Amino acid sequence: MIFIGCKEDRNLIFEPSNFKNETCKNCASITILVPRALGNKKIDEVINTALREEIISILKYDDEVDANSIDSAMESFQSEYIQLRDKFPEEATTWEATINGEVTYENDTILTIRLDYYLFTGGAHGYSSVRFLNFNKEKGKELGNEELFSDIEAFEGLAESKFRIKEKIPNSESINSTGFMFENDVFYLPENIGFTKEGLQLFYEQYEVASYADGPIVLTIPLVEIQKYLIPFRS
Questions:
Q1: What string of DSSP letters covers 131-151?
Q2: Which domain holds residue 218?
Q3: What own/partner pairs with CB < 8 Å and gap ≥ 24 does 82-90 have?
Q4: What are 27-78's pLDDT values in tens digits?
Q5: How far, in Å, CA of 35 to CA of 30, rounded?
Q6: Do both 149 and 117 map to the same domain?
Q7: With contact defined as beta carbons under 8 Å apart, do 95 and 61 qualify?
Q8: How many domains does the chain have?
Q9: What pTM did the predictor assign?
Q10: Is residue 6 part of a domain?
Q11: Quick check: is 200 in a domain?
């Protein structure tokens, strides 16, 4: 008898979840396409809840508005646009919100979802950015940035070294010597950190450490170089 062993596929199952508001002359334009976890495990609920809350946070123009669903957040966005348009009919241009999500990394333990979004609510230009959501599948929880690392201070030292090399900042000079705007002239990690197939990505938003004209600042470090700094997880 010959026994053939097969590695169990522990990847989660997703389906595309699409939201789009009514198309009309006086409507804001809202398009959302994100993955939705289909299983009945705790982690599936945690993922879907985190995605919903993140989308609501992106769409809420007024923090005082009580939005507890994606639909109500879309209604809030549309309502704010209508109020502005009615108040300044000659100046108001159509508002726009586009949110796209995808799974950028998954192994037996870790799952990362990246949200790319663009908002235009008037003015000279819109605003685009990225948000990473990281999850521990085994524990059924969303992870904060500090929970990704076994030694975050040591990783920060490595990240600064990589950042200086990429941006051509001499080690003998301050981190802001070439025009960056790190607070107190001290390197720090961005708010947005997530796993991708290429490695761990550090995503500094516009204005976070540089001017708007410089755009987002992105640093990707291969996982093989940082394994010892990360929480133990199976690849």
A1: EEEEEETTTTEEE-GGGGBSS
A2: 145-229
A3: 82/26, 84/122, 85/26
A4: 899 999 999 999 889 999 999 999 999 999 999 877 666 788 999 999 999 9
A5: 17
A6: no
A7: no
A8: 2
A9: 0.90
A10: no
A11: yes
